[in-house]
Amino acid sequence: MVLTIKKSNMNIIKHKNFFVGLSALLMVVSVVIISIFGFNLSVDFKGGSVYEIAYTKNVPNAGMVKDATQNVGIKNAVIQQVGEKNFVIKTTGVNENVKLNLKKELTFNDKFEFTEEREKTIGPAVSKELVKKSLFAILFVSMAIVFFIGYVFSGVSKPVRSFKYGIVAVVALIHDILIPTAVFSILGSFMVDFQIDVLFVTALLAILGFSVNDTIVVFDRIRENIKNTKEDKVKGKRFQNIVGHSLDETIVRSINTSITTLVVLLALFFIGGDVLKPFALVLAVGTVAGTYSSIFFASPLLVLIEKYQKEPKVDPKKEEKEKKKEATDEQIQEALRKIQSGEEKF
After folding, report:
1. Among candidates 241, 228, 229, 174, which has minimal Cα distance to 14?
2. How far is the C-alpha of 278 from the C-alpha of 11, rounded, in Å?
3. pLDDT of 246-297, one tens digit each?
4. Which domains does the chain have, with CATH numbers?
5. Of 218, 344, 194, 214, the residue nearest 286 (C-alpha)
6. pTM confidence score
7. Distance between CA atoms of 214 and 227, rounded to whole angstroms?
8. Chain-centroid distance, C-alpha 141
9. Intra-chain end-to-end CA distance of the chain, in Å
10. Cβ(175)–Cβ(187) under 8 Å?
11. Nearest to 45 by CA among 74, 78, 80
């Protein structure tokens, strides 16, 4: 089957400079925001204590528990209600006297009884190790993606080398994780509950997987369309039309998948409880950023790379040999066609 590529009806590739510039601007703004506001790190990354208590009969609300922590001098405690009766309290820099006062305060003058479910203290050494492991996980995933895409796309090295597909995908992934990280940087500066914790890193890794899947779907369609085109040399306007056509074929699928995912994440955010709200928000922002980058950033960036890359030097002898081989293959195919149609016989 020979694919006939028509000019894309969409203006995404036509306005590639605008979309790539917008994505670059979003990345720069995200870095600036992170530099200004910093991170509101949880006890997972800066050390501290985690308490979980379960009330037996009467249950106070989260606001009352928050007030109890402030009454004993704990200003930045994170209160998360788990289920109907359990509360998780995360705090830093608490000594034994403060712990005892907190336990008394949480009874609210003996009106509420509770049992201690767990108590965990995370030291500075453990928190530094978590930081290292988190950064390593993100770096490892990014490098694995480059090598995987480079290997899968090794059959299509023209007009863009296969490893460049991987590099473009990773640049898009950086875009996808910078934006939700910047959002959390702002939220963490004003709301103590939005902290960078292990669950946040888990959400970033999930975003990496979701986003690269979306990007690979588009790239794979580009690869197939390049293979099926009947022209020998695919470059310039021809390559742009193939990329645009591939986007036309995949954009509805990408948007529908993202909308379905967003519906679930928004439901999780609004009715999933305090513990899951930050996690759902990170995934929701990352899903939007990932869908945008796979359609409006990765593919236009691929076209720009093809446009400005240097033409590789071609060995005249090798080129002549390839032309003779192609001519021979065409003659064989033509002969087989005539035999099958009955025009010629052995």
Report:
1. 241
2. 36
3. 888 888 888 998 999 999 999 988 887 777 888 899 999 999 999 999 999 9
4. 16-40+126-308 (1.20.1640.10), 48-122 (3.30.70.3400)
5. 214
6. 0.74
7. 21
8. 11
9. 27
10. no
11. 78
